[in-house]
Write a structure and sequence with these properties.
Elements (H helix, E strand, L loop, with lengths): L13 E3 L5 E3 L7 E7 L8 H12 L4 E7 L11 H12 L18 H9 L15 E4 L5 E5 L5 H13 L6
Parallel strand pairs: 3-4
Antiparallel strand pairs: 1-2, 3-5, 5-6
Helix pairs in contact: 1-4
Length: 172
Amino acid sequence: MASDASSVPIHDWVLTSLDGRPLALAEHRGRVLLIVNTASACGFTPQFAGLETLWRELGPQGLTVLGFPCNQFGAQDPGSAEQIGAFCQKNYGVSFPMMAKVEVNGPGAHPLFQRLKREAPGLLGSEGIKWNFTKFLVGRDGRVRKRYAPADTPAAIRRDLEAALAEPPPAA
């Protein structure tokens, strides 16, 4: 990835998966992305079930859900990568890609989240993520389309995802 991450198309990024392997978003080029900062011990943690439903039902149509564990909010995801992965699989059957734990705010914020926050600010233009399970919708074209609050359930945003999926993939 180039040194100026803000100019690199999102589908050109290479991320680190929860198991430490590289995940090239190029593998998901032309797909709609739903990027979520997650936590294992949060009041919103049951949203993993809804995210998994979206992944299973809309994945064949071109949706990729990406979960990014984050321990910045109430220390609600303190576990190791192995613990987080086991928790998500055992309790919610998570099969969508889970990424390595990240920070989403502050000087250590992952460059992807810096970009997402800048391109889809929150209420009143704020950039900071307020809590776990903030969601970002990225269109097939790699543009950040919308930001959703933690209380916005996966079922509540399904219509937006379906609309994004109905758009044709960008020309190669």
